[in-house]
Amino acid sequence: MMGPNHEFYNRRTRSTRFNAAVIMSTSWSCLDCLRLILVTSCLVAFCWELPSGVEAEDSFCQALTPSPTLTQFVDKLPIPYQIPVNTTEISIGAWKIKQKLHRDLPPTTLYAYGESQETARFPGPTFEATLDVKARIHWENHIPDNKHFLPVDTSINWAHPKHGGVPTVVHLHGAETESIYDGHPDAWWTPKGEHGYTYVTQHYSYPNSQRPALLWYHDHVVGITRLNVLAGLAGLYFVRSPKDKLTKLFPYGEYEIPFVLRDLQFWANGSINFPNIGDNATIHPTWCPEYFGDTILVNGKAWPYLEVYPRVYRLRLLNAANARFFNLSLSEPSLRFHKIGTDGGYLETKPQILKSLLVAPAERLDLLIDFSKLKPGDVVYVNNSAPAPFPDGTDSFSPPQTRSVLKFQVTAWPNSRQARGRPSNSDLRNALQYVESARTVQKIKYTNALHRYLRLQEFDDANGNPIVSLIENRTWRDPVVDFPREGAVEVWEWINTTPDAHPIHVHLIQFKVLNLQPFDENGYLNGSCNIEVGFSKPGTCFTGPPLPPKIYHTGFKDTAIVWPNFVTRYGIRFQTSDGRRFPFDPTLGPGYVFHCHILDHEDNDMMRPYKLIH
Ligand SMILES: *[C@@H]1O[C@H](CO)[C@@H](O)[C@H](O)[C@H]1NC(C)=O
Ligand SMILES: *[C@@H]1O[C@H](CO)[C@@H](O)[C@H](O)[C@H]1NC(C)=O
Ligand SMILES: *[C@@H]1O[C@H](CO)[C@@H](O)[C@H](O)[C@H]1NC(C)=O
Ligand SMILES: *[C@@H]1O[C@H](CO)[C@@H](O)[C@H](O)[C@H]1NC(C)=O
Ligand SMILES: *[C@@H]1O[C@H](CO)[C@@H](O)[C@H](O)[C@H]1NC(C)=O
Ligand SMILES: *[C@@H]1O[C@H](CO)[C@@H](O)[C@H](O)[C@H]1NC(C)=O
Ligand SMILES: *[C@@H]1O[C@H](CO)[C@@H](O)[C@H](O)[C@H]1NC(C)=O
Ligand SMILES: [Cu+2]
């Protein structure tokens, strides 16, 4: 449940960033004015005369103007509509839309997925795929803008379409799929028909031959993923096992609730407030190391409520935020989260009974909550206690309102349903027993595994502002150096020398977190000790033994939290998550990628390509 022992790591200060944020976010101050003068060279007199807020079109990295105050829990939780997917191809577009994200907020401009502009929403439609039944989707781009409505930073590697337009490409996160359908960052397309150099097709096909799980689809264009996903290009995708459907042991239909979490910041007119002036605008005009919004949304509504009957519910949770981690808890002390699955499907261990849940960007959780002992009229809040950035942030980016997420409102059964629909209270026990009995623990041998060492490193400017974070000191554009063999078992050791926890995602496969081990960061970086010495000899930088994976690391994962000042080891088998050969040739096409899922990091080179070989 707890993070690693804090004594193990060596905090670097973040004072520059936090001080600026505290000063800038309070109100229109002299400092704001000075910074505006510096950046936009407006006149002092002009600055002082304008009323507070109105002129603040410029938005400083990590010092955003607070959003308008919004009453919490006034909007009903929306449920994205479902579309079954199978071998009959359907067309899904990216559209420019306006959507109401809160009762009192004017409609917000978004880019979103849908079959038409009228039906496009954030989150996009929920796709319902069936195990081992191919799904065909034709992904289209109908975004009419010549220029993105969010600020593109051209100083970082990005798609750079010559004829303008907003490029898009779709990654089905967690899917075990051919690389031509994986949404490779350079395989983008624009409405004008221009595309990136690894583009092959927009007619995608997903085999759905993997452990049944909740996946999600989202944009993945090189250098603007953070903008396209923030703009709304994301949605859920279930791979369902027909067996699960038949047993009906788990709450389903209206009792299975998709729960897409994210944070955003707004201007009073409803527009998304995204920084257009970077920490160090000389180096990166608009790029900002992490985007944190002060408004928490679930399924595209700010602080919604959900009416629940006194029974068991299943929550399918995704953290779709750019950078915010959530540590969720329930205000009703008698309730627990029963965690039955994660990114790669059901747990292979017993369900976990938890009071709190740490969930990083892109991670998913499959949860049961039993409201059956509660009375009509009872309310239960879902609260959040994670600092931002995680784990060493202060309150600057987690103002009090970000501590609340959603309100469950317990309601009496309608008379009509009292008789038929009301399930017995033993539901939870049966469901949990089913998960336990259905588990097939896969024994994977790591003894002869090849080890890859992947150093995560942040580079700062002279004032301590992060400028870039790299993996093995290589950029996205450096050549591929990682060529795992199809079917091989490998251990990927993430050596995190930065102050942040990074949710590191590997495409194509589901992995297991094997362990994590603390090390001396200074010694490692100055070369006085070593880590990359193989399995037989222990590295000399370690300051303690390997620790077992944390509770949020268990199960099959495609994205996991890599702690600062620890080496986190992923055990990877380059096969399907259920231990079969891939039903396609994974060595073909542009290849796969691994990256940090803090999208602001990913876009600024914390992403690398990799390719499989036979
Ligand atoms: C999450 O919050 C709970 C309190 O609600 C706390 O006990 C727990 O340590 C936190 N988890 C992490 C990983 O910080
Ligand atoms: C909304 O307000 C912001 C801040 O004043 C401004 O920059 C933006 O252009 C406005 N958007 C619209 C659509 O009016
Ligand atoms: C296949 O998907 C289409 C489009 O969503 C749907 O209309 C149809 O019912 C599905 N067919 C099957 C056999 O599920
Ligand atoms: C949880 O959030 C609710 C609603 O904002 C608040 O009233 C309550 O005090 C919070 N509980 C905790 C433990 O923070
Ligand atoms: C930007 O970085 C350069 C190089 O480190 C540094 O000289 C300059 O002071 C930085 N500017 C700001 C505004 O921090
Ligand atoms: C990273 O690579 C650059 C050249 O691309 C080199 O100048 C620098 O010394 C390297 N830094 C580290 C820490 O390896
Ligand atoms: C390297 O780091 C170690 C451990 O922090 C420290 O003891 C040592 O003095 C450093 N050496 C140099 C050359 O900076
Ligand atoms: Cu990161």
UniProtKB/TrEMBL annotation:
Organism for this UniProt entry: Sphagnum troendelagicum
InterPro entries: Cu-oxidase_C (IPR011706), Cu-oxidase_fam (IPR045087), Cupredoxin (IPR008972)
Designated name of the protein: Plastocyanin-like domain-containing protein
Pfam hit, one: Cu-oxidase_2
Membership in a protein family: Belongs to the multicopper oxidase family.
Top-level taxon of the source organism: Eukaryota
The Plastocyanin-like domain, residue ranges: 472-610
